[in-house]
Amino acid sequence: MLHGVWQKETPPSVIKRAKQSLLDYLSVTCAGARFQKAKLEKYFSFAEPENGSFKAIGTGKSLALKEAVFLNGLNGHALDYDDGTNSGIIHLGSPIFSLLLPLAQKYDLSIEKMLKAAIIGYEASYTMAVSIQPMHKALGYHATGTCGVLGATLAAAYMIGFTDEERFQAFATACVSASGMLMVLDDGSELKPYNVAKSAMLALTSIQLAKAGFKGHPDPLGHSRGFLKMMAGKENIELKPVLLNSTYAIEKTYTKPYASCRYTHPSVEAAIRMRSVVKLEEVKEIVVKTYDLAVSGHDHTDIHGSYSAKMSIPYSTAAGFVFGKAGLQEFGEEIIKNPEVLSLAKKVKVLADENLSASFPKEQTAIVEIRTTDGRKFTERVDYPKGEPENPMTDKEFKEKYDGLFVYAGYEKTVSDRIYDYVTSGGNSVRELLEML
Questions:
Q1: What digits encode the pLDDT tens for the residues 251-283?
Q2: Which residues fall within 8 angstroms of residue 265, CB to CB, at 6 or more apart?
Q3: Rounded mean pLDDT of 85-89?
Q4: Of 19, 32, 238, 340, which one's alpha carbon is 20 to 30 angstroms from that of 376?
Q5: Residue 113: HSE in the Cβ half-sphere, 13 Å Cα cutoff
Q6: How far is CA 421 from CA 109, 428, 429, 437, in A?
């Protein structure tokens, strides 16, 4: 039971992972605000968000609570660089931290208490998602926009000390709120971050309604019109246990080394490895074999903008091969027009492989075969791309990602180092942490 996880002492290794997740979220969100600067300026001009005392991370603005929560979510997923899990097909941290940080600021709570609540949120979101996937995705849902609401709601309810009844009603309200459309990935749409933004805001609304005494359905998950039937297309869904396989959900998450959809990462990594043995001008064709869920919506070679590039296995693979990396710069609006990358992307064919599909999500495999103009073939296989629990980023690699994001966001290194040291060394005030940003 989730409540039992809350009551038990959290292992130090899990707390350490939660601290890294928080740091990753802060750096990604600050960089996301910088990436969306022009659009945010238009948003502020038209929407005229209400000023307040809550930090909208990375914007330099203090706004009303709901505005801060919403913009945190919008910026937290803007770069598609935030953590998640393949088995749940969900981004976990961005909806949760987008809500918890402003609430912890409001109630002057400690980082330790916030992290413990975040761990609960990860557990709840993941458990719901992994129980209804892959049917949920097949129906067109983005689990970050559905299950993310549930996890963020429960995390907040635990963090600010709701009663059992209040927690249940908040969860029941969140079940009514949950929605998220996968079509935001298609045809150059830039609304994928909106699923995170509204998840965080709807979670806030859910706890506010519950605290006010509004009651939801006594069984929001079950029945023919409950959450599980709606989200999986069938009744009698068996919920997975919490602490699945005896590990915390937050331990199951990946940290992204590449600034693109996670489905692209195995082939990106393979391409980066192969560039040392094949020259660009020798490439006739690249065939990427991977699991079926990674193909649909991610095999396009017509690139309509940065978001489209991030969702494209052909573009991401080509960028990795041409540049030897796939960070923020390789998905910038100027770079995605690079003729060498676009030409190579057109040579990439993405195929679903039956055996690789059967091994997902245990393995997230891509087999990349490069065929040269003189008839040679080179093959590289990646089962666990960098950042997975089975192949984690080193502390040095993580810090390099973290530093790079803050530099991109326009922060002095003294500031980002101070934040990093404060969180890792046990600094204990969310308010003080946010004052550094």
A1: 999 999 999 999 999 999 999 999 999 999 999
A2: 256, 257, 258, 316, 364, 385, 386, 387
A3: 94
A4: 340
A5: 17
A6: 19, 12, 13, 14
> What does the alpha-carbon distance between residue 151 and residue 144 come to, in Å, rounded to a whole number?
10
State both tokens at 357.
């599909």
Nearest alpha carbon to residue 196 among 147, 133, 135: 147
410-411-413-415 Cα dihedral, nearest 10 degrees:
180
252 φ, ψ to 5°?
Answer: -90, -5
**What is the residue whose two structure tokens read 């003189």?**
374
Q: Which two tokens stand for residue 104?
A: 């912890």
Dist. CA 39–CA 45, nearest whole Å: 10
Q: Considering only 23-27, 224-228, 247-251, which range has the smallest mean pLDDT? A: 224-228
Which amino acid is present at 322?
V
Q: Show Cβ contacts of residue 339 under 8 Å, excluding neighbours closer than 6 positions.
A: none
Rg (alpha carbons) of the chain, rounded to whole number? 21
Residues 6 or more apart whose Cβ sits within 8 Å of residue 314: 286, 288, 299, 300, 301, 345, 346, 348, 350
Q: In what order do the strands lie in the sheet with 348-352?
A: 348-352, 283-290, 366-372, 377-382
Query: Each residue of 199-244: pLDDT tens digit?
Result: 999 999 999 999 999 999 999 998 888 999 999 998 889 899 999 9
Q: Which residue has the tokens 């609006």?
A: 333
Summarised one tens digit per residue, pLDDT across range 125-184 is: 999 999 999 999 999 999 999 999 999 999 999 999 999 999 999 999 999 998 888 777
- What confidence tier does 187 reach under pLDDT thresholds 50, 70, 90? low
DSSP string, 261-299: -GGGHHHHHHHHHHTTTS-GGGEEEEEEEE-GGGTTTT-
